[in-house]
Amino acid sequence: MKPNKSGLAYPKSVTDEFMERIQQHSRYLYSVAYRLTGNTEDAKDLTQETIWQAHRKSHKYVYEKSLKAWLRTMMTNRFRDQKRKKSLKLVALEDAFIASEPPHNAQLQSVEEQVEQRLMVERIKKEIEKLPEIYQRVIILRHFNGFSYAEISETLDIPEGTVKTQLFRARKMLKERLS
């Protein structure tokens, strides 16, 4: 029970209790936000916006599910929406699998865009190294060596359909890790 202005106690509302539960995850949310944004101020803003949005959408929360996971998903979606709205260029997965050499239109890109693209390529290379070997091979042969499906099939001595399946799975794993 919590006292009101007149000093009389009244029961906590469901939304107050839900807000307390959300606040218990604020440090976790901040750490996720910092990893997403890369700076303190944006992380604080994203955390506050997520908490506010969660409070507003508390009626949509399914109590059987993890609150932490629900908040993280909400934050990640909010971050993606903000990036989209700011028209920040998100490098598509297919476009990111370019060799480390600068693109032909490098003169048209700002230095910041070129650095951002190089960082993305390096991040993708690190994530590729973490993939199971069967997926590493097809990704490297296709996107870094420029092999066709038939060439990959012949090189690895596996059916072309298997090459396509492995590429699909590898790209899906990378996309999930990079999101």
Oligomeric state of the chains present here:
single chain
Write the H/E string, N to C.
EEHHHHHHHHH
Helix content: 55-70%
Task: Specify Rg, calculated over alpha carbons.
Answer: 23 Å
Strand count: 2
Amino-to-carboxy terminus distance: 43 Å
User: By helix and strand content, what is the structural category?
Assistant: mainly alpha
Largest sheet: 2 strands, antiparallel
Instruction: Give the DSSP E fraction (strand runs of 2 or more residues).
Output: under 5%
- Helix count equals 9
Description:
There is one protein chain. The chain is an all-alpha fold and 179 residues long. The chain is 68% helix and 2% strand. The chain contains nine helices and two strands. A two-stranded antiparallel ribbon has the order 1-2. It is elongated. About 5% of the residues have low confidence.
Give short descriptive properties of this protein.
68% helix, mainly alpha, 2 strands
Write the layout of secondary structure elements.
Blueprint: E1 2-3, E2 9-10, H1 14-23, H2 26-37, H3 40-56, H4 67-85, H5 93-96, H6 111-130, H7 133-144, H8 149-156, H9 160-178
Helix pairs in contact: 2-3, 2-4, 3-4, 6-9, 7-9, 8-9
Task: Describe this structure in a few short sentences.
With 179 residues, the chain is mainly α. It contains nine helices and two strands. Helices cover 68% and strands 2% of the residues.
